[in-house]
Structures
1.
Amino acid sequence: MRVFIDFGDIKCARQVFDEMPERDVVSWNSMIAGYFSGGFEYHALEMFMKMHTFRVTPSTHTYSIVLSFVPSVCHGMEIHCNLITKGVAFSSIVVGNSLIDMYCKYGFVDYAFGVFLDMEEIDVISWNSLITGCCKSGHKDMAFNQFCIMRTNYSPDAFTVSSALTACFGVQDLAKGIQIFCLIIKSGFLSNTIVSSAAINMFSKCESIKDSVSVFNEVDLWDSAVCNSMISSFTYHQLEENAMRVFVLSLNKNIKPTEFTLSCLLSCASLFLPPVEGTQLHCLVVKLGFEQDHVISSSLIEMYSKCGLSDAAKVIFDHMVIIDLISWNSMILGFAYNGRTVESLELFGELLKTGPSPDEVTMTAVLLACTHGSLIDKGLYFFHTMVNKYAVKPTDAHFTFIAEMMIRAGEVDKTIKMIATMPDGINSYICKLILGSAWIQGDLELTEQVAERLVKLEPKSLFAYMVLVKVYETSGRWESAARVKKAMKDRNVRKVVGCSWIGVDGLFVFKENEVIHHGGEDVYSTLRLLLQDIEEEGCV
């Protein structure tokens, strides 16, 4: 039976199990574990129930297996009660640790603490389960506090410090993260790939990408987990070229990319136009057999949509076997992003008929489509019904799209009243929209009020200062215009230099009015020859 389970033939294993004249607890455990490893959690739970019917007493190993896949916390509580009546819950470290994991998985951290405090004996794994559970449940500060308490009597292992680092970047506390990093170096854990990956992620999420690069270079471990952490860190900080470079180097080191690797790279491939890198990554996805992975498929849809190839994105969407809400959102947003309002709203209608319930991202995509299509009435309808009809609470993004539609329709006064109800107050984008409208209408008082608000939100924003200068000069208020110009100079507010870029054997950026750049002499020599040919042809 064990041989069949190891080879994944659960059907033959069950047949052997049913034909056994005597079945002890080890046989039942093997069958339960086999169902669980094969993805048949329901059958595994059914075997656990039959075990009681045949009056076979479960072992601590049985309970630890079952607690790892119980479908709900209610099932877990029933097993917990059964353990208490048998006197096993507090005496077994293995069972106690499994209970802690189970309660934390479902967010019942207080129950996990109750189990932890009632255990007769605890070990490092018990502490690891509690700390990791706190992290996964969103209680990052609590996780770090437990790590500090643990160190008074127990020595942390590699798994403990990696969980503590996760807690630090969850609350973006770089100071605590550095303290743990020093402990890691002192304890010699940095060579562990899990720890080094966590350290790279911690520095990245705490806005210290240089330290992430330093850790990556220092450990010099060309491992899938470490490379993935570095690639995701670069993409998180919008350093897409660096992410691609690490990926190419990892391929040279014969490191096979994972689904996570490709998903990270596809998210930034849209910045390279034409999408050569994106199509190459797509080919690699097919070659590795990841095309049916719904996360990869969603990333491909997003990549092609951002490149303006929404038809290619729709082909991928139509060939998906399992379409989750993320995939629906990616495709609806892809159509909206490319101005294809009708297709976006039609797909939203299909989602309402056959797909899962829409969330706030779905409604953001729908309102974006309405904005691009100037469908004000539809946009307002979706906005006013999204709470009652779809149970989606409006966010700043939803308010922003509605504000943009109303301002374009000339409803500035109504927009100002509406944005007063925004959860986080007016944002800089809405300020710019109102400022542009007030400037055109010649409303000086409103222009000054909104410009003052925009300067507070974006002190380095040129737009607010330039609008004020234009308005003051138009109305003949030269002293006011001079004061604004002086404020710009004092605050070092300068015009943002525009640029164009082209991807030819790399990425070359051409700034506005730039004379000297890569290949500049050849470019201008060719331009002079073209102008000479045009003059000779008499076209000018």
2.
Amino acid sequence: MESQNRNLILATVLSVVVLIGWTYFFPPTKPAEDSTAATEQTTPAAPAASDAVATTTTAAIEAAPTPANAPRIAIDTPDLTGSISLMGGRLDDLSLKKYQVSLDKSSPLVRLLSPAGAEVANGSNPYYVLYGWSPAGGLDPAALPGPKTVWTAPAGSVLTPKTPVTMTWDNGAGLKFSRTVSVDENYLFTIRQSVENTTGAPVRMAPYGIIARHGIPAASHVYVLHEGAVRMTDGKLQETKYSAITKLDAVSGEGQADILKGTQTGWIGFTDKYWMTTLVPANGDFTSVVKYTAGSDIYQAEIREPTVEVAPGATVTTDTRLFAGAKEWEVIKAYQDKAGIQRFVDSIDWGWFFFLTKPMFWLLHWLHGAIGNMGWAIIALTLIIKALVFPLARKSYISMAKMKELQPEMEKLKEATGGDRTKMQQGIMELYKKNKVNPAAGCLPILLQIPIFFSLYKVIYVTIELYHASWIGWIHDLSAPDPTSILNLFGLLPFATPEPNSMFFMFSLGVLPILLGISMWFQQKLNPAPTDPSQAMIFAWMPWVFMFMLGSFASGLVLYWIANNTITFVQQYIIMSMHGARPDLFGNIRQSFKRKAKAKGGTSK
């Protein structure tokens, strides 16, 4: 009895650890939103330039927030809408036409970039892109355009894929600047900066680009998904979470920064679960910087290009690109393959098992295109994966069938040895050896399948195709939890249920989570309950514990688990039946109810 109590306590503690660990590493998925609190309104430092590569050695240039009445250039493309402020020439107003904050048709579009200082309709933190020139060789910073500079553009200018816009500024002292912005049909901007020197002496300066983000975006920050800075430098990928950015070492003249020089190709920016903003320098020497300004809580991603000399009467031009939009795999891959942005698909977080997640993602993308419905594509992908790992599953189920055949002999052995555990273990090992049964044979195939199923989980979690994608009936958003709730009898009772961000939401079980628990319960009943009461209790609770754990997850993930459990149930039943160990499903169910009735002191016939 003392041993059983110890096992019960240990099993209970382990279950709690699993529950807490799962909730920590895989927190509930919430519908994507862009609502964050306002923060201090300052503009990040404009880099200064040395004679080689741009560095930030000057003090910060502070600027007033962008006035609401500052002149602007409208942006209108098939996928984007917004504007560019002529004050500072910054891109600080951008929304995604294909994506809304919620399923409500009147809900606002997902807003990617927001201006500093101006009131934003959905309360987004300031998030914007700056371009400019840093002074070098003793050039007066006042001779260059800054964050307060008001550029000039032709009246009625609208940035579209067919109509680039050009902004100009003359410093009145012999330097004339122009900035031409163009955009394609999707999310790629090209920024061409030019400076004409009409003075009688050469001038030196260096072009730069900055993505500035005030505060951390409100989102479900999940361990398995990277959110923060991401950059590629000469083929090497580096990811830095927001929490790690705030812990960067201080660099002289920079603040907290991580500076990395490249000689070939690269890109740098900030990535969220579904959205991304990335600077792409021209091929050649460049410096990328991840930076944090603690006083104003600003996160920065910068590209600094080498200093150039502009001779008297000459004009120097430099091109950079900017990706600002949704992380649509097909679009990003086209930029990698056709626009030459090296390894751009790696801006999507593929995880540790990238060699598995990448082909799985491609297959899910193909199935979605072929079937036309993401829910059925998830089920089809699960079927294909289960078919591929079927040989491993078959070995596991055959091993389970052989173990079941030996169950009567093991019961006899248990009675013969009484309570002597040592003799019983020795007898069981001899029984295995005599019948050529390897008890570990069923474990190894399962272990080999773990990275496969974890990769499938990752693919379903990160793919943007689930965002507001419907399946059947009541499931209108596979990226959000099941909207139905047992608390109001799935909509039959006229009262609201807890919101997804409420601590009581886990009790608001929908149809899919309940089906998940039932599928796990049926799968469990293919085998008799363990003879040990403690183990039997833990196994009895596991389906319902997982039902609550996964109930607040995205519907697409819950659908995957239901499909996986159902296919596993069918495979196990058929294979064990073929090897003479047909599961007594209903007998095991009856036995479990008898055991519960006996535990309560009742009787059963």
3.
Amino acid sequence: MANATAEKLKHFGLRFGDKIAVALASVVFFMCLGKALTRPTIDVSPDQIKKAAEQSDSNLRRKVPTEEIVNTLVEQGIKTSDFAKEAETSSNMLLVANDFKARRQWVTPEPGAGLIRDQPELIAPTNVYAYPGRGGALVYELDADGKRVVETEPKAVPKSSTIRRNRRRRGGGGMSGSSGGGMSSMMGGGMSGMMGGGGPPTPEQEKQLKAEAERKRKEIASRLAGKDEPADEEEKEDPATKAQGPPPKEITKGLRWVALTATLDHNQMLENYRKALKNQAIAHPNYRRLDVQRQTKQKDGSWSDWGDVVAERNLEVLDNLPMNDEELTPETVRPENLNDPLPFLTAGLWEKVHIASLVPKELKEVPDPTKTGAGGMGPMGGMMGSSGMMGSSSMMEGGMGGMGPMGGMNSGSMMGSGSGGGSKMMGGMAGMSMMMGGSSMGGGMMGMGGGGQAETLAQFWRSEEKKVMVRALDFTAQPDERYRYRMRVVVYNPNLNREDVSPGVDAKSEELLGPWSEASAEVNMPPDVTAYALGVLPASPKSEMKAVFQVVKFNPEDGQTVPRNFEAAPGEIIGDPRTAEVPTSDGTGAKPKTIDFNSRLLVLDVTGGFKPLPSGFLGNVISQPAAALLLRPDGSVEMRDEADDRPDEVRKDVEGNYKREIKESNKIRSSSMGSGSGMMGSGMMGGGMMGGRGRSR
């Protein structure tokens, strides 16, 4: 209930409040008016104003003697200066122009753009794919200090020396890598069909040729990573790399690696550079390197923190390669500093190291070897076929001049899909000179685009391709570990030490770091001895059920990976020393060797095989995939399941590659495509103009 007094005050305020406010304001007004009327007025007459004005005018017109002015200045401490003498002294002084130059150079307006440059926005690689591999690579032997060991004992040149040598790691120009392999392939397997009889092949020959073509298709497909989407002669020795004194010693080193491939939206990168730098002539990213980080899966299933992959350990391999393996992608989609070179493998084969959508179509499609090619030169598809030899570009500009001494063509144009220049080479060049020119146009000329400004003359990789490939090899992966990877692009700072940049733009750092990519899927580096469950043998009254295992043994010394099947029942250890065929790469054939296949895994239990169906179902039995419970040496237990092991991609690659290497051990290996690939396109013109990754670490 409301207070009675409060209610009365409220009604009084509402009724008389405005009247009280007006009364108070009136009282204040009259008080101020009274104060104003009582103050005295200013007593100034016109005569007083006139007299003050005349006095002021008299002071302004009065002349002061010079002596009085001087005395006043002296009294105040102001001394006279001999200006004439100082001027005469100054005229005799020698002036140096450099002392008066501008602190920075004048900025010249760039054509069609403003003066203020921004920092280009970098983007991350996408579709990061990781795949494990093992093998033996040809490398230079290093001592304890990391220096190359010199060959002290003279020895006969091995037959494998016919393989092409690696060109300079950091230079441009010159063909690299796979030209020799392609040449030997053409003159070997391919020429057998060309130079043979001109008649059609027999049904038996046709069957063999088709089988060989299918094998080549599978070999090419195994090296490609990602989906196949539509795409928006002996090498001359480089004088700069000619050996001085005793040559370094070459050895085969067993390696484990994880091959990382990804794509980079190079077209978007170009757009970002053109927008930021205000000039299309210089708007090309200068890629410096590819940073790679990885996480390791812990025992509890969690992932460790991201850590840098140790680049120095990888460079111990990549910076000491006598030979590089062949490339399937052209240089225009393979930035030098963002792609690790492929070491030449004497054991094992490369898998998933090329982006399928970036490999030229003619290198992925093996033509029907039973049909005569465009050149009409025999059942192997002909030298002049559209995809059999020289890639996708035109070969002929002035007619076919025949085979030169090096197997080249003595006139016309010879430019494969790996050339980046896009122009043809016309008339009058021998085959080898044309091959060297093709490499120059594919790699060297890409660094000369743009106008005449100093920064447009920088020699670095340039391309107008929309999408390019990045690739890294991690040789530090440990057996029986699981990883996932991410990567980022690092570029040279285009605004380094420039003044014409927007506020906040980094002009001091030598390099700019791009954003990290999304993490790859989990990848497992298999143990050096791995047992895969492939089936069971039915139990008999005298024995227990046995499981069939395929044991894959990797030798870290020479890189050989050999699979062999074993049977084991509960209570038995999988694998034991057995003799197996070991492939070779020098053409001497496979060699028998005793290998210890002991996996140190004890079988605890086995299940699987044919199981009877309940009554009422059609059929009598159903096949259940084999499953085995195994005890590891550290006391932990693992499960091997046929449903997972039989389709395992790594296991299938190991088995298929081993069979292929055994079959081709009587041939000299020319590349990881195998000894008899016969692909001139992939070797010499399709993607062979390759080089090592130029590094700035």
